[in-house]
Amino acid sequence: MPLDLADVLRRPRTTEARTALVTGVDGGAVTVNLDGGEITVGHLAAYTPAVGDVVLILATAAGTWYALGKLGATTDPGPNPPPDTPTSGTATFPATAAGSYLDGSARTDRRDVLQGSDPSGAGSNQGAWWYGTAITGTLAGAVVGAGRIWVRRLPGGSQGPVTVYAYAHTATAPTSAPPAIVDGPTAVGALAVGEAAWLPLPAGWAQSLADGAVSGLGLATPDDTGLFLAAAGLASDPQSGAVELDWSAP
Region entry Disordered: which residue ranges (predicted)? Predict the structure, then answer.
């Protein structure tokens, strides 16, 4: 009768382990060639003997032999399980376009993102970043908490820190007219010339970006007369306007 390995180990202390060649199988009896002679041995229930197998056999102190299994046999572990699906993380979305408007007309002289009264005295600037539909396409249905936008300040205006005012809009790509402001402008930090930072988005904006309620961000002073600030556009900083959003599964 085939045995489990535990049954064999419960027998009196083993005295010898050898290798042998299976030459015959008759029900539960296995014939093996050992040192030129044939003997009949038992086998473990987990091993299905076949003629031609080279097996490890174990002798007990009582002189009984058992075939433990085929040498060189391996068990196929099957395919690797799929990786766990992440349930939270931080997603980064680069801006697909950046630019500014001066008194309502698109600026063609520079592609930076500007806010406030223009140093030339020509009027007031409104800058914008656009992201296409990548944000909502990736995070629709997710719970999004904090968000941040990357802003690098260029020379121009006051050398000291100037308040950065951000706003939210619904345009996915540049248009001839400035995008309509649907939230803000709201102060999100202050930068001196040459400084760059991830500035925190106001509460709720990150979720609105994921839901598609807003599609883009920009810079503009609340009363159109605030201090001028020039933020790098994509030509001088490919990370300009990039957005980080902290998300979790619903």
Answer: 74-96
- E strands in 27-117: 29-34, 37-43, 54-60, 65-70, 88-93, 97-102, 105-106, 113-117
**What's the whole-model pTM score?**
0.68
Kindly report, residue by residue over 75-110, the tens digit of the pLDDT.
556 677 788 788 899 999 999 999 999 999 999 999
Instruction: Please state the domain extents for the chain.
Output: 5-73, 88-248
The yes or no reply on domain 5-73 and CATH 2.115.10.20 is no
d(CA 234, CA 97): 7
For 153, phi then psi, to 5°, come to: -85, 135
Determine the Cα angle at 234 with ends 230 and 236, to 5°.
Answer: 70
User: In this structure, which amino acid lies at residue 8?
Assistant: V
Cα–Cα dist 165/219, whole Å: 6
